[in-house]
Amino acid sequence: MNSQILINYIAFPLIKIAILLAAVFTVVAYIVLVERRLLGFFQSRLGPNRVGPLGLIQPVADGLKLFLKEDLIPTNANPFIFKIAPIFSFFPPFVGFAVLTFALPLIMPSGKMHQFAVADVDLGILLILSLSSLGIFGIILAGWSSGSKYPLFGSLRSASQMLAYEIPLTLSVISVIMMAGSFRLSDIVTAQQTYKFYFIIPGIVAFFVYLISVVAETNRTPFDLPEGESEIIGFHTEYSGMRFAFFFMAEYANVVLICMLTPALFLGGYDIPFLNDLELYKTHPYLVNVLGFLSYAAKSTLFAYFYIWIRATFPRYRYDQLLKVGWSVLFPISLLNLFLVALIKLFLMK
Amino acid sequence: MIVFVVLVSVLIVFFSIMVVSLKHPISSAVSLLIAFLLLAIFYLLYGAEFVAAVQVLIYAGGIMVLYLMGVMFTDSEWIKITRQTHLQAWLALFLVLVFFGYFGHKLYHSQYPAPAVKRTEISIAKKSETEKKLPYLQRETNPRSVSVALFKDYIYPFEIASVLLTVAVVGGVFLAKKEV
Amino acid sequence: MEKIKNFIKMITFPELIKGLSVTTKYLFKKKVTEEYPDFKPHIPYRAKGKLHVQIDTCISCRLCEKACPEWCIKVFPPPKEQMKTDKRPQEFYINQEHCLHCSLCVDACPTGSIHHSYEFELVVTNFKELLFNKETLPYNQLLKQYKWNYIENVPVRPRTTTPLEQKENTK
Question: What digits encode the pLDDT tens for the residues A20-69?
Fold first, then answer.
């Protein structure tokens, strides 16, 4: 085999994947810690700060604890499906990270351009949506195969919830796709840079619908009926040890993925605010790369903070209220908004 | 490439047979799910990325969830002890063989690849000033060619299908309501 | 006009913003957590810690030994000749392993020699470490202050209030 092909098509992507996965696992481990500490601050506590300075080694301790726990399989469970269910909910968010683009392309000294992404494919956002619709199988199969009533109820709750909120989510994402004219995430950011306004301005309604339904899709607190750790019992009741850790990590990986996706869709991604990026890129490409990456990170952190903030603030919805909001409020609003955005795209976006 | 295609097709056929032959309803639902996912891979191998994504999004992510929810409510013990076939199976097998032979004969004598269809040129009729600047709108991508085929070449069948779906929804609501 | 007001209220969600602002206020408030091993916690005035005996004032009357429901106190009085001049016990054992912290011995003591200290850390790796004798008994650093308060039998030190009570007082 030609060595050039080996480097360009096998070695280089593998290095990219390794870096991305390492970064994602670190962020997923530390967002748990950040959430616990911030929740503590919100409740005038201090949160976990015992392991290491400021509690920074806490994720390692948590992981070690879960790893050393006994792996139980209930007698009534269907062992095969019980074992494969965590995998179903584990892989979709981690695959979704592959299509994210983190900065404008890097120009090598030889004149070649390198994307700051593992696979900046044409399908982009559609791939993330279709993969996240697969995550629901992990929950349903986990609940069913546990061979116990409460996990089954939890999984049924979560199935109807995720079906109800997937539609407004998709419709509000479609309005962004319509404004940009492409599924590819780097194209969506390029469109926002060229139009010189972020898509949050014409799509403010879509943004709020997206924000609400994304919280429901990731099973976070105002909508955390699938788990309901405090009073109603959730789908992963029978899971322990490493298999539970898979569900846990999948949830937080979903949160991180959404926190990185939202800025790209509505807030211009790696665009630097108040600067003409594309002009500056021609003269100082490396500066724009670094600043763009930093601004993307800042926007994502803002959303992560917002997520934890609403978790600390709002109580849980009742189940019928949840479905009512999903089907009879968000769904018509997102449909109307789609029509509105189409009109804006036709007549106002010159 | 051809090895992958054959492998995926064999797996699809295997899992489709498992759907009808497995006794446990959840097991057959899971094998149907795997067959759907393999079908998406099959589309990907032929370069139809958009169709593959939609296959996963709608069939695997939407319809299979409804199936699984329905299956969960059924009494699986009752299904286990009932026979899965009856006398009509022989007739069905005969008809399947006849159709299989017919389509095999047709496929064997058909042209491959299919004759090229005259396609509409991909261009947005009225482009605004900013849209002309966007580089990616000039490039032909898989989703864009699918959308052009749907909304320009085959607009009437597409709209008729949507009307059919609306009729189905209205009919479903009518049947579900006890008093109209 | 009323309808327009209601509509604006409906689409701007003032309740949600109010809730979010409340949590933000708490984010910057002083935290109430006591970081125990690093900083000594605040101990209330009437806290009942380990038992402590002031050997110098003890008269070996063995009333505490009899009052103890768990029999965790054992007093060895001095020989009779010595008892006339020096009444301090020859040996004094307190088994903290069994102690209930019930204060019955404190009530029984005529001289106020036995009382609770502010020491509360009772975690050991060996049960024998919980058996205290005459040599190991004076473990209380806050001894003087406590003794003084006890004899007066009135809470001299103003009773420190918890944050919750402070809030109620200011109301």
Answer: 999 999 999 999 999 999 999 999 888 888 888 888 999 999 889 988 99
- Give the E-state strand segments of A10-159 in sequence order: 106-107, 113-114
CA distance C138 to C143: 9
**Residue C114 β-bridge partners:** C53
Residue among A45, A310, A313 whose CB faces C31 most closely: A45
What is the number of structural domains in chain A?
2
- pLDDT value, residue C35: 81
Chain A interface includes C43 (CB < 8 A): no
Last residue of a domain, one of A36, A53, A68: A68
Looking at beta carbons, which residues of chain B come within 8 Å of A82? none
Chains near A (3 or more Cβ pairs under 8 Å): B, C
The band of B123, judged by pLDDT with boundaries at 50, 70 and 90, is: low
Measured CA to CA, the distance from residue A3 to residue B157 in angstroms comes to: 50
Question: A21-25, B83-87, C34-38 — which one is most confidently predicted on average?
Answer: A21-25
- Name the DSSP letter for residue C130: G
Delineate the domains of chain C, giving CATH numbers in brackets. Answer: 51-156 (3.30.70.3270)
Are A103 and A182 contained in the same domain?
yes
What would the mean pLDDT of A218-236 be, rounded to a whole number? 79
Which of residues A16, A47, A68 is at a domain's end?
A: A68
Q: Please indicate, yes or no, whether residues A289 and A150 belong to a single structural domain of this protein.
A: yes
Closest by Cα among C70, C86, C74, C87 to C132: C74
Interface test with C, best of A37, A42, A310 (most C CBs within 10 A): A42
A107 and A15 in one domain?
A: no
Q: Are residues A64 and A76 in the same domain?
A: no
B137 has a chain A CB within 8 A of its CB: yes
The upper half-sphere exposure of residue A178, i.e. CA atoms within 13 Å in the direction of its Cβ, equals 20
Amino acid of residue C124 = V
Nearest CA in chain A to C35: A46
A30 and A158 belong to one structural domain: no
Which residue in this structure is represented by tokens 């494969």? A84
With a pLDDT cut of 90, the percent of chain A lying above it is 33
Whether residues A100 and A55 share a domain: the answer is: no
Under an 8 A CB cutoff, do A313 and C27 touch?
A: no
Which of B1 and A305 is assigned the larger pLDDT? A305
A89 vs A111, A142, A225, C86, CA distance in Å?
41, 9, 17, 79
| CA–CA–CA angle B151, B152, B153 (5° rounding) | 110
C27 lies within 8 A of chain A by CB: yes
| Kind and range of the H or E run holding A136 | helix A125-145
Distance CA A311, CA A309 (A): 5
Q: Identify the domain containing residue A247 by its residue range.
A: 72-347
| Judgement on whether residues A30 and A47 belong to the same structural domain of the protein | yes
Query: Given an 8 Å threshold on Cβ–Cβ distance, is A137 in contact with B57?
Result: no
> Does C51 have pLDDT greater than 50?
yes
Hey, are the CB atoms on B130 and A350 less than 8 Å from each other? yes
Same domain for A55 and A80? no
Highest mean pLDDT among A50-54, B7-11, C52-56: B7-11
Q: Tell if the CB–CB gap between A44 and C19 is shorter than 8 Å.
A: no
Q: How far apart are CA B138 and CA B127, in angstroms?
A: 11
User: Average pLDDT over chain A, rounded to whole?
Assistant: 88
pTM over 0.90: no
